[in-house]
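So, can you check what follows?
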Amino acid sequence: MTVAEGITTLLFPFQWQHIYLPILPAPLHHLLDAPVPFLMGIQRRDGAQRSTLELSNEANLCFVDIDNHRVDPPEDLPLFPDQLELIQEVNEVLLRFGLQPYGGSTTTKPAPAAPPCLSSLVLEDLMEDRRNGNLGGEELAVLERLQALARRCGGGGMAGGKTLGRAFEEEEEELKAAKMNVQLREVFAGRFTSMFGRYEEFVIHSAPDLESWLGNREGTSNFDKGSFLSAQPATHLHFLSRFLETAMFSSFVDSKVLSRWADREPLQRVFDRRLERERLYNTFEDDPGNRHYRKCTVLHESVQAMERRLLKADHTAIHPHLLDMRIGQGRHQQGCFPRLQADVLAQGHHTNKWSSRYIPKRPVTTETTSGLDNDQREKFSPGRRILCQSKLLDPSPSAVTQTQRGFVEGLLRECRVKTRHMLMERMGKESVELGQGEANITGLQENRLIHSLCDLLERTWGHGLQLKQGRSALWSHLLHYQDNEEKMESPSNAEQLYKPYAFLLCEEEREQFLFHLLSLNTVDYLCFTRKFTSISIPYRVVITPMKKLSIAMTMSNPWVCVSGELGDSGVRQIPKNTQEIIFQCQNLGRLSTLQLGQENSGLLAKCLVDCVIVHNEITGHTYRFPCGRWLGKGVGDGSLERVLIGQLVSPGGEEDSGRWTGTPPEQGSPPQSGRTGSLGSLSRKLSSAQVQEDTREAVNNLVKHFHKAEQERGNLTALLCGEGGLVRSLEQFLLHGFKSSRLFQRSVFIWDFVEKVVVSMETADQMGDLRESTELCDSLCHYANAINASPRNIGKEGKFQLLVCLGVRDRLLPQWLHLLAECHLTAVQYEKSALVRDRTAVDTLSRVLHTLHEFPIALETALVKGVDL
């Protein structure tokens, strides 16, 4: 009982919202199957061990063994913020009162000098108060003489063998315990004040009136969790992300929103006053994300305030009077608990007119009661939503059935709310348009949502379980199902595994539950891919040729290499006469690039590839790697290897919710003339203003990438080499105004111009006519020659892409741009209106590229493989 009360007391300003049974009677052990959080106390039987307890939700259970001073926390329990410092501060409070931490005995160190005996102070203060029935001075003097006479005659003992001094000592011990309790509560209250001191800034007041808020309560968010977490220290995020999903925090925020139309909850009113005092003395730190641990500074003041309240006890005692009972009812034997009077207990406390005689009535104002009637208060005021203990304590079969039915309905309601919340959080722009929150969701928020869903699934599968087979009811169920499948046996009857009231035996609720879970197939979550880094995953790779030329597809020993944020698959050969391959390797994480190549087997081995599709067979994620270019010698840029940039394909709806198999539907690729690196119709259609705007936008996207939190950053390779990336925009810049004297408008590649500039610089250097900086010219020539000497056949487009990426990484790209613009070949190869011949445009682009020098740019191995620079 004491432990349970202590836990709920230390939660200030939050309130426990679920089942609270500090002492669980044996007839009510069925409540241990409750699929909701609970706080219960179980009596240990003689010789009983921890393993003998049959608890279905053991994976999420915190077991406190009071007798043996042992705590078994649940799996994956996050650390409390500044946990070590908090433990140290609590230990200091215990030592101050002569108690050893971890349940030790009293120390031999003498306690600090105590103030004057509180009992004597109270006695003196109330001595002359005749309203309380106390004796006056003369009567008290007579009583003292009688007590002295009794002591001389050997009758100094009080009733029960307790001396007057012993009674005072016990009172002092109670006072000491009260002081310690107050200081311990202040320590924990100080921690919650530090963590949630600015919570009001993140409360969302979206409803204009009470009726609107009540009608849309489940569909709206009252707290900006993403912004709140982004302002917290990184070490606190794991705990806070879980704590924000608890019912007591949601209740706390709901109370804050509800206070616009009704009275604030008492605990919240006290907490808000404490925050106002903290702001008045400016004790909050300016940078919450860099918060340091600060010990509680009001321990002494809290003890003094408690002593002042005890000295002025607000109590009105009544004169002695006869009790309303029959003769003999109050008798009991010494050492035995008396028999309780059922008729007196049934009357309740409201029959005592003395207990409520002097309670002051608060003035009722129109503002606090106009929008909320009594029924709404009882139903929607979170602080007053306390489970009906009388129904829980009824062991009759009908009451048990009704209680379990309420649990089933609660699980279904929770599933509906959670899945809807997960959909709105993950749908990005759609959720912003509907007013449901931020567009971006961080990895931390994603993990928070999935963890909450896993907790719900575990509680659902553990409800009404007949026999516990492991710590996790859901995992045991899956293993049982797998074992039956391998033995080719029919699945076990659920009625044999679960009790009649179990959620999984309620057919209608179970179908609705699965319907809500299937709605999550419309969004993608990457938490499994990022969390389980060592798991082996099968991948399916499908090469899709151009639709009209698929018959002419001829590839010689094609191969692929898939790369992700956790590694690459290595070279995987594709079988002959096929367009797909399935291989298994360690989790690659979120996929970013794919290398597609073939052997050099003559001019006949060529193929116009539309795209490559990679499917994760476990998570169901599908990545599309657009290509739209030739692969083969003597066609296009002569590339035998392409580095493709992937993009995650969004689920297409219910038809895509199942397992993806077979070749995906072919999609039209962009025209080859519009591909990057070659002179075509696209580069001529773009105006100079559009080209410059695209370049600035590409650089701006890179800058924004590095200014985001690390868990929010996307794929850097896509920003460099993808559609609309830096490589594409620079190619457009260099293709603008390029002259082409070739017949039939054959493709002209920027790499051809770069090679000519390099040859011109090397020739001028040998002849001593080089005007530009020798160091910059040497760097450009060195990089270009190293790329040409690479054993990879990546083609002219791939070579230019590699040159740009290396230039950005090594902070040489702006200088190289000036070299290309000032070369004498530029006037020959470009028209007069070309951007590269416009000194102002070149200087502007150079300054824009200089903004990337402050960021560390790391290139994927797939981009720089084979080049030693």
About this structure: Residues 62 and 73 are 5 Å apart (CA to CA).
